[in-house]
Design a protein that fits this description.
The chain has twelve helices and six strands. By secondary structure, the chain is of the alpha/beta class. It has a six-stranded parallel β-sheet, sandwiched between helices. It is globular. This is HAD family hydrolase.
């Protein structure tokens, strides 16, 4: 849903919360670096990630398929110790992120970031000084989407009412569905593999569906 109807339906929204992977940042570097570390072709690991997510499994299962028996947390620590740990910089951001988030803040919306990421990713994102009040990750909170506890922490962090809070993400089953169950308004972003795979998802239907963050900012700021 886009245009005037969506704008009217979301008129009570005062707070916008963004997912991270394939919403604000591309996941190319993350999975490519894991493939290089494990010594498997990047295409192989990428295909495995797509397969497990399409099956409704956690994307970390792709690492366990590529290397059976792997202890992901221990392997992540070894990568960090070897100087090949997780990295994020400006080149990982989608080009519409800064202008869209800034436009929303300028229009009076509270902007927050909360996704299923590591604590290190949270620190890296905060160092990038995005136009957002807070940046939080599942590892820092000790709970992850699609758990109800994650969205309870979203509301605790933003201090906003569920009906006044819009959660924006690319994954229907981990973003739209559980956010809606928690009473939040929802926006499905059709980009990245999951956004395109489930572009027609309608169970439950999102309050808004967009193909980019500039479009989102335009819809929300109309008439303000």
């Amino acid at each position: 849903m886009t245009g005037p109807t969506a704008s009217a339906a979301l008129g009570a929204v005062t707070t916008v919360v963004f997912d991270v992977g394939e919403t604000l940042v591309r996941d190319d570097r993350y999975w490519g670096s894991w493939a290089d570390w494990l010594g498997v072709p990047r295409h192989t690991l990428s295909a495995l990630v797509g397969a497990v997510v399409a099956q409704g499994r956690d994307n970390q299962e792709a690492l366990r398929l590529a290397r059976p028996g792997i202890d992901v947390a221990a392997e992540r620590a070894r990568r960090e110790a070897a100087g090949r740990g997780e990295h994020l910089d400006e080149s990982d951001l989608y080009e519409d992120v800064r202008p869209a988030l800034a436009a929303l803040r300028d229009a009076g919306f509270a902007v927050h970031v909360a996704g299923n990421q590591t604590a290190r990713a949270g620190a890296l994102l905060r160092a990038m000084e995005l136009p957002a009040e807070t940046v939080s990750t599942s590892e820092e909170w000790g709970c992850a989407k699609p758990e109800a506890a994650f969205f309870a922490r979203v509301l605790e962090t933003t201090g906003s009412a569920p009906a006044a809070t819009l959660y924006v993400g690319d994954h229907p089953a981990r973003d739209v569905g559980p956010a809606s169950d928690a009473g939040l308004r929802t926006c499905h972003l059709v980009r990245g593999p999951w956004g395109h795979l489930w572009a027609g998802w309608d169970d439950p239907p999102p309050d808004l569906r967009v193909t980019g963050l500039r479009e989102l900012a335009k819809v929300l700021t109309e008439g303000r």
